Fold this protein.
Amino acid sequence: MAWKAPLLAAVVALVCAAGAEAAGTGQPNGPKWLEFENLNSYPEYVFYLWPRDTDRGSPGNSSIQLREGRAVNLRTLLPDAVRAAGGVYVVAIPLKLLGGPFQPAKEEWLTSPSGGVLKSQPLADANRQVIAYEPDASRSIRYRVEVGETLKLVPIAAAETPAELALGGAISHWYCFVIPVAALMVVLWKLALQRRTPADAT
């Protein structure tokens, strides 16, 4: 069964190649998060991320109330709801209109803002992540909220990849190729020696 060794080496090489491709730079493809800063600078507003889901006849089902320092997992947003809404948005609702800081937002405020309700432009990065499930180098997408006549979301640069992590990803990428190839060459060399005839040896 000498053929099993080169076959095993080839399988290991293919598995490692697929793993390295999925890993990209070597960073884990963990949950992606949305983070918003500067919310506490506007206590007269309550902020919501929309849509999380469709309303399904239940107030508050379609949105997530945002709070300073609390990230939102992008995987909790339903892709079908995001497609139907045309993207992911942040909506600022005046506290006096809402009636309390923990009240659910009415669907009409989220879909067609009026009465002082402000709605951001769609978050392009979030749309791409939710709808296409594309892996991204960063673990979170961060925005700074600015409220004036309109609601603006200023992207905050993601932290750079730690050098140790990038180096580890590169090493693991080459490690997966060099070892199986070297093993395959050794096996082929041994097979060639075994097949040599006595005439070849003299």
Remarks:
- Residues 17-28, 159-175 have pLDDT under 50 and may be disordered.
